[in-house]
Design goal:
With 392 residues, the protein is of the alpha/beta class. The protein has 2 domains: 232 residues, NAD(P)-binding Rossmann-like Domain (Rossmann fold); 97 residues, Rhodanese-like domain (Oxidized Rhodanese, domain 1, 3-Layer(aba) Sandwich). The strands form 2 sheets. Strands 3-2-1-4-5-6-7-8 form an 8-stranded mixed beta sheet, sandwiched between helices. α4 packs parallel to α5 and α4 packs parallel to α10.
């Protein structure tokens, strides 16, 4: 897009144009620019809304999930009427209604090593709204290889982070986080929770960084990590320098093509991961059983102990009490395990698998050699055995 702003655009963006640092040329630069947002969830929602409202000419969204009721506490792109529909369809309708001057492109797929360079290529700026480590490392590496800066954001409970990575001369995500944390160390938002307004704060900061970069104004967060504590309402900024030994952006990179990021981060495609944490199938572990085997055992009247290691509020949404499940939140497992019968099979389940894996690992370490995890958790049961069961 080029040329002067139309009368409608002059009115719509008047509060921008009247800022000396932006002016007509800055607004025209926004209209001539493009931003790709990875994830139409908690972070992607405010980022997309504010970038569309600001008049970024071309806006892309990558997601593969459906809108769930549990999303609406923080994912403000979507509303109650959109529950059960594609997040991208919901997002497109909202953004086109907000600003018809913005061209919306959607990519309804899971971002992976096979498609990331193609999808992320050709954009002026990327906003990473993902919620898992494999996707963060993937976005970082792809952006470094493409030479495209991106706004990073992360949230958990009351705490958030934001920065700009892969800018010329600046650090990348790997300069700060050379290696991913152990997969069991950091809980995801489904397990630990997140204050609904926090992604609004962090996602808006990501949009702010994109706007400044595209308009060529101000100082971005490149070279700095912004730390946000919403409970105390404190902001801190830490300086970050490029790592001369960085495996991706260093002078002698050892990672020159995209890798298997699930393996790199020690997880599996079954983890509660990109795009809001929906259940996805992955290869079963040796210590897993699937939901069809559990159903067979129930129907056959076999004797076993079914332990649900989710939290009280999750149990209230949906549970397997009618097939004998007992609620034992993961944090209370060591004490509750004293009441388990070591002579009967133990079947552990959580929402989608990861907490069940941890519970089985602990139980086997303390002598329950017959403990197994229900692959895919209660989400798999809802999808494959009982479609009427509520999902979250």
């Amino acid at each position: 897009m080029s040329g002067g702003l139309s009368r409608d655009e002059l009115v719509r963006y008047g509060r921008h144009v009247s800022i000396p640092e932006v002016g007509l040329r800055g607004q025209e630069r926004l209209r001539e620019s493009s931003v790709l947002i990875v994830g139409a969830g908690g972070l992607g929602s405010p980022a997309a809304l504010y970038l569309a409202a600001a008049g970024v000419g071309r806006l892309g969204l990558v997601d593969h999930d459906l809108v769930e009721l549990s999303n609406l506490q923080r994912q403000v792109l979507h509303d109650t009427n959109a529950v059960g529909t594609s997040k991208l369809d919901s997002a497109r309708a909202r953004l086109e209604g907000l600003n018809p001057h913005v061209a919306i492109e959607t990519f309804e797929t899971r971002l992976d090593s096979g498609n990331a360079l193609e999808i992320l290529g050709g954009w002026d700026f990327v906003v990473d709204g993902s919620d898992n480590f494999p996707t963060r490392y993937l976005v970082n590496d792809a952006c470094v290889m493409l030479g495209t800066p991106f706004a990073y954001g992360a949230i958990l409970r009351f705490e958030g982070q934001a920065s700009v990575f892969a800018a010329p001369g600046g650090p990348c995500y790997r300069c700060l986080f050379r290696d991913p944390p152990p997969p069991d160390l950091v809980p995801n938002c489904a397990e630990a929770g997140v204050l609904g307004v926090l992604p609004g704060i962090v996602g808006s900061i990501q949009a702010n960084e994109a706007i400044k970069w595209l308009a060529g104004i101000g100082d971005t967060l490149a070279g700095r990590l912004l730390l946000i504590d919403a409970l105390r309402m404190e902001f801190r900024s830490l300086d970050i320098a490029p790592d001369p030994e960085c495996a991706v952006c260093g002078p002698e990179p050892s990672v020159t093509e995209l890798i298997d990021y699930e393996r790199f981060c020690g997880g599996s495609p079954r983890d509660e991961a990109a795009g809001g944490g929906a259940h996805t199938e992955g290869a079963m572990h040796d210590l897993d059983i699937d939901v069809h085997e559990l159903k067979r055992r129930v129907d056959a009247g076999e004797s076993f102990q079914l332990i649900d290691v989710r939290e009280d509020y999750e149990w209230a949404i949906c549970n397997l009490e009618d097939v004998g499940a007992r609620l034992v939140p993961l944090a209370t497992l060591p004490q509750a395990a004293e009441s388990f019968d070591a002579s009967e099979p133990l079947i552990i389940h959580c929402r989608s698998g990861p907490r069940g894996d941890r519970a089985v690992e602990y139980l086997r370490a303390v002598g329950f050699d017959n403990a197994v995890n229900l692959a895919g958790g209660i989400l798999a049961w809802a999808e494959e055995i009982d479609p009427a069961m509520p999902q979250y």
